[in-house]
Amino acid sequence: MKPKIALITGSAKGLGRMTALHLADQGFDIAINYVHSRTEALELEQIIQTKGVRCTAVQADISKQQDIEKLVSQVELKLGGVDIMVNNAGPFIRERKLFADYAPVEIHAMLNGNLVGTMLLDHLVLPHMRRQRWGRIIHFGFGHAAEGRAWPHRAVYAAAKVGLVSFTKTLAVEEALSGITVNMICPGDIRGDNKEKTIAEVRGMEDHETPRGRPGSGEDIARVIAYLCEDSSDFITGNIMDISGGLDPIRPSIL
């Protein structure tokens, strides 16, 4: 059978990189996407190719429609139609500030990068998935996004991701008969190098902010995505899945 092709946005580093490696280990051909991290993307491309699968790296900013169209066309040209769309990329302003203090350009960038760009990417890959009556679409959110609660100092990011929650559920219903599943992954506060570590590598560490007691790892996220991509996972769709060790980013637990 022809190997399935997975496009992972923002995959030169971090959670996207770990997801790309994990899916390559499952035998999927991989399309890496990056904006500025060209060196890391090309290094990852070579690593994945040694696993015996095809891989290509494409530069594109998913907050720009022209780049999105180029990204999908380049992947189709080099590998073929996208079977698995992992929407990992999305800008995040770590500085905590009130909505009134955002510049209009920041508002547009956050909405385009986290919501509009994701919707446009899905729109472009759907025709191929529909034709073959098989597809996997995965969005990224934040812990408890499905509850649509207030998140002070994160107004624009939260609004974009909560909008994506509704879109995830709607698209899942609309495309179910086409054999396409649509789900959202909501990682916990996985920081720094831990995004590219395995579960074994973080198991001995302590994290007093997370109820589970250990920090999250890239593998925690990647293994769930790989599971959702299995043929037999076709009954799992429209779900918003918190993978956070019990952490609530908005209202932390008091242990």
UniProtKB/TrEMBL annotation:
Tell me the InterPro entries matching this sequence: NAD(P)-bd_dom_sf (IPR036291), SDR (IPR050259), SDR_fam (IPR002347)
A Pfam family assignment = adh_short_C2
What the entry lists under PANTHER family is as follows: 3-OXOACYL-(ACYL-CARRIER-PROTEIN) REDUCTASE, 3-OXOACYL-[ACYL-CARRIER-PROTEIN] REDUCTASE FABG
Task: Name the protein family.
Answer: Belongs to the short-chain dehydrogenases/reductases (SDR) family.
The name this protein carries in UniProt is SDR family oxidoreductase
Organism, by scientific name, is: Paenibacillus medicaginis
Q: What are the leading ranks of the lineage?
A: Bacteria, Bacillati, Bacillota, Bacilli, Bacillales
